Amino acid sequence: MPAVATDILPASLVAQLGETQLQSLIEAPREKRLAILAAALQLSEAAALSALAAATGLDTASNLEADAEARGLIPARLVHDYQIIPIRLGEEAGDGAQSALHLATAWPPDNVMADWLRTFTSRRPVWHLAVPERVHQLIIENYGVGSGSLEDGDDGYVAPEIQQHTEEAVDEEAAVVRFVSDVISQAVEDQATDIHFEPQEGQLRIRYRVDGLLVPVPVPENLLRFQDAIISRLKIMARLNISERRLPQDGRINFRADSTVLDIRVSTIPTIYAESISLRLLNQKKEAYTMDRLGMSAEEQRQITQILDYPHGIILVTGPTGSGKSTSLNAFLRKINSTDLRIITIEDPIEYEVPGVNQMQVRPEIGLTFADALRHVLRQDPDVIMVGEIRDKDTAEIAIRASLTGHLVFSTLHTNDAPGAITRLVDMGIEPFLVASAIELVIAQRLVRRLCSDCSRLEPVNKIKLRESLAILGCNEEESDWVESLKLPVGCDRCRGTGYRGRIGIFEIFRLNDEMHELVLKRESTRTLTDCARRHGMRTLGQSGWEKVKAGHTTLEEVLRVVTVAEK
User: Fold this and answer.
1) How far is Cα 215 from Cα 192, in angstroms, rounded to an integer?
2) How far is CA 24 from CA 27, 28, 185, 562, in A?
3) Cβ contacts of residue 46 below 8 Å, gap of 6+?
């Protein structure tokens, strides 16, 4: 048995692991070890944590609360490197400077870690094991993202040897490089889609967009001192002109975080304090969504699959930016992808790689627009064409012509509901008879946050409030009489206290029939088309959302947040 193995894991657990499992455990960072141990022992992470606690004789701590008073005792770099956080326990409150120092950790402490701790405080450490995600979250909340990289301290925990004064400039530059990498890596871990660096008066604010909502990121207190260096670092990574601060610039970064390779789109704009920088994170290798995973019901899948088998026509997906339109189109492509179909996509940007599909990136700066690319694609003998977005009359006309000449065309539009796509195309200048002939299906969609499966619980409903909400969503108010309880968010360590984990789609599927065909030819309004579609059984976004609420996937508040409600 290797000595290093017994240093990081009790002998009773080492005996249950194979040599390969043990090696991967030794090489993994501390915060990843519990997941590896759980997989090796074929236990859940909670059960593995209990087994580890029993083997080491340590307590497990839940509902952690950071000890603000003890926060200054340990350098941020040590906290980040070893994934430890001082926590408050009720019985120890107010016992004076020499009371025990309670520390939550993602993995049992080793001798090196204990030695470093004694260097900074004489208080006796009392160790508690805790869920790694919660420990990491508390570190971020209390010390800030990347605080270990930008620490001012000269108190010894950067390197055991004394640093040379001549190295200070190099160290600061290296610190900024590490900090920017930490911010992007944390965004990947939080499954953020965007990062915003926003210079304000007296601070540099950093925010992530997670599950469609902007979330402020806790940052180190000394961040402002590094503001210019951070902005310059981002511009260097994106190969932008760092001396040009008066004009907006666009660029891209290829970034590797562990096994994840990101294509990051960078946009800078000059603001009154400094340049504001936005990063759009695109992970082309991320796990693709199926129609099931998108949250489509069996009936919705049946309606869509029926049209996917058509040899020609246009299928449109509509919704605002960030509503999952590209994800849905990719799920449809994967559904029909086969060796006997030639599929070509024109995208900006390419968000997912689809094996066997010819994917093309538009480049407006050299004249390769959607319309121009589509003209050339039609000469490539395609069976199925996906156009990332119909932005103008030119693209719309070519797409409709392609569908009428025997191609199945997928695309997206920015409209609030499904029938609105028809009137939008007519408003662009497309003849109504062409629109009515070409469009086979329009799907409007939104993304709502999914309730955390670990902590959500059933609560009795307020009937009056429920009736009001159903009226706003355009659902049958009488349904409130049959509903006694609905699931609500609670918040736990797994969902980082939000009550939600991940997102799920709600869908409005609009298919033209003969009556609607006549309405389109008469250039009738979106409202008239919607009323006709509902009479023929179309389920609106509000009704789809209510079905997801009843099934326990999300909450009424989430549905009301994302659904645009017309005046009643």
Assistant:
1) 9
2) 5, 6, 21, 43
3) 131
Cα–Cα separations (whole angstroms), residue 275 to 53, 184, 206, 229, 314: 49, 18, 13, 12, 42
**Residue bearing tokens 């590490």:** 178
Q: Is the pTM of this model over 0.85?
A: no
- Separation CA 299–CA 281 (nearest Å): 33
Which two three-digit tokens encode residue 30?
A: 């501390």
* Range in 169-178, 252-261, 330-339 with the lowest mean pLDDT: 169-178
Give 93's DSSP letter. Answer: T
Q: Which residue has the tokens 């789109």?
A: 265
Tokens 């999300």 belong to residue: 554
- Give exposure, 38-61, as e/b (b: 16+ Cβ within 10 Å): bebbeeebbebbebbbebbebeeb
Q: Which residue(s) pair with 485 in the sheet?
A: 460
Alpha-carbon dihedral 76, 77, 83, 85, rounded to 10 degrees: -20
> Which neighbouring-strand residues pair with 265?
252, 280
User: Residue written as tokens 């066997």?
Assistant: 356
* Per-residue exposure over 96-116, b if at least 16 CB sit within 10 Å of its own CB, e if not: eeeeebbbbbbbbbeeebeeb
∠ Cα 415 421 427 (to 5°) = 100
Confidence class for position 272, pLDDT limits 50, 70, 90 = very high
Q: What is the pLDDT of residues 527-559, one digit of tens each?
A: 999 999 999 989 999 999 999 999 999 999 999
If one counts every other C-beta atom within 10 angstroms of the C-beta of residue 258, the result is: 10
Are 7 and 108 in contact by the 8 Å Cβ rule? The answer is no
DSSP 159: B
What lies within 8 Å, CB to CB, of 443 at 6+ separation is: 304, 315, 316, 317, 318, 328, 418, 507, 508, 509, 510
The 10s digit of each residue's pLDDT in 459-500 is 998 888 888 888 888 888 888 888 888 999 998 877 777 888
Beta-sheet strands, E only, within 201-246 = 203-210, 213-216
N-to-C CA span, the chain: 73
Dihedral-angle region of residue 151 (phi above 0 means left; psi in -120 to 50 means alpha; beta otherwise) = beta
Give the integer Cα–Cα distance in Å for 182 and 283: 17
HSE of 65, CA atoms in CB hemisphere, 13 A? 5
Helices (H), 405-489: 420-427, 432-438, 463-473
| Contact criterion met (CB below 8 Å) for 515 and 536 | yes
Per-residue pLDDT of 16-57, as tens digits, reads 787 888 888 888 888 888 888 888 888 888 888 888 888 888
The enclosing H or E element of 345 equals strand 343-347
Contact 24, 62 (CB under 8 A): no
Are 461 and 557 within 8 A, CB to CB? no
- What's the number of CA atoms in the CB half-sphere (13 Å) around residue 465? 9
Tokens for 461? 């409903």
Q: What is the DSSP secondary structure assignment for residue 66, as one 8-state letter?
A: B
Q: Are 24 and 33 in contact (CB under 8 A)?
A: no
Tokens of 101: 């120092």
Helices 463-473, 541-550: axis angle to 10 degrees equals: 150
Give residue 241's pLDDT: 94
Residue 73: CB atoms within 10 A of its CB come to 15
